[in-house]
Specification:
Layout: H1 10-19, E1 21-24, H2 30-47, E2 48-50, E3 75-77, H3 88-91, H4 99-106, E4 111-112, E5 117-121, E6 128-131, E7 148-151, E8 154-157, E9 160-165, E10 175-178, H5 191-194, E11 213-217, E12 222-225, E13 233-241, H6 273-277, E14 289-292, E15 299-302, H7 306-316
Antiparallel strand pairs: 1-11, 2-3, 3-5, 4-13, 5-13, 6-12, 7-8, 9-11, 9-13, 10-12, 14-15
Length: 321
């Protein structure tokens, strides 16, 4: 894990609160990105799944988000935390350049909420119609599972994404797009905007380079434009939540959930203690939760008094209520 730490200042807070996302530049070196792409290449034939079935497509046929080649769908690549060829995918959990942003936008005790995976698009493949929103972009309903808030200067996201850019996305390339400021919108969007058929001037594609990380609130309306480059688009997508929030449930599928061992066992191989702390299930920080230091290099434990825990044991038969 890189040792250089980023600090969050007024500018970063302003930009995230203004737009609902931020681009963190040069988190990973070109050498680290090459190793990550080599690992993807090594596993691609084994684990890559292309969305060809119409029932799992991400766009409407012939819509503005559908792409020029209807035979090509988005490609999803799982199991990336189980690979041994590179440390990059595990390091996203506790990287010294990213932890300050996690703490600022999620709070201490943040946790990985979804299984991370690689998204790939070939030239002409479909994008992803606009989705998400604190006010759901399609229904107009309040979506507290994805909600963004900023109260008394404290930013919180019920669910936040971190997208590691593995191939350059210059202007006009397609890929990740966002409706800037939509995390604070109060209404649903027109259907023709969601599908990319109209109001495209409000849908922005950030310019990014391999090694950057795009961090965005799931309360910000976002999607993906059809891919226009001759090379394959690749990003590694993670979703994180505050200590007490949960959207996904993959952490419950295996092992001893009470000890935070519900994720697939092979994911834990080679992980540091700080990385394992990010895999804990949702519960409050004061209940002996392991918290990462501001640089991600160490941990501390937030706890109630031993007397209170002993009392709970008498009342409930458990150390925790």
């Amino acid at each position: 894990m890189a040792s250089t730490q980023h600090f969050i200042g007024d500018t970063e807070r302003y930009l995230f609160d203004l737009n609902g996302y931020i681009v963190i530049k040069n988190v990973f070196s070109k050498e680290e990105i090459k190793k990550a792409n080599d690992a993807i290449d090594a596993h691609f034939e084994e684990v890559a799944k292309e969305r060809l079935n119409p029932s799992i497509r991400n766009t409407l046929p012939n819509s503005g988000m559908a792409g020029s080649d209807p035979s090509r769908g988005r490609i999803d690549v799982g199991h990336i935390l189980s690979w041994r060829e590179t440390d990059l995918f595990k390091s996203v959990l506790d990287h010294s350049k990213l932890v300050p942003f996690y703490h600022e936008f999620l709070g201490k005790g943040y946790r990985m909420d979804h299984m991370p995976f690689v998204i790939a698009q070939n030239k002409g493949s479909e994008g992803f119609s606009l989705h998400g929103g604190t006010i759901d972009v399609s229904s107009g309903a309040y979506n507290h599972f994805l909600a963004y808030s900023c109260q008394q200067g404290i930013i919180r996201n019920s669910l936040m994404a971190a997208s590691v850019v593995l191939a350059d996305q210059p202007a006009g390339a397609g890929g990740y797009c966002v409706v800037r400021g939509s995390h604070k919108s109060n209404f649903k969007a027109p259907a023709e905007m969601i599908n990319g058929d109209n109001y495209r001037e409000f849908v922005y594609q950030p310019e990014t380079e391999a090694g950057d990380v795009v961090m965005f609130s799931e309360g910000t309306v976002h999607g993906a434009l059809p891919w226009e480059m001759d090379y394959q688009r690749r990003v590694a997508l993670y979703r994180f939540a505050p200590a007490t929030c949960c959207y996904g449930r993959s952490y419950m599928e295996e092992g001893d959930v009470g000890m935070g061992k519900g994720w697939p066992s092979e994911m834990y191989e080679g992980m540091t203690e700080t990385q394992k702390a990010v895999l804990l299930p949702p519960y409050a920080t004061r209940l002996d939760r392991v918290l990462l230091d501001d640089d991600g290099a160490g941990t501390s434990v937030s706890s109630r008094s031993e007397a209170k825990k002993a009392f709970d044991k008498e009342v409930f038969g458990s150390r925790y209520f």
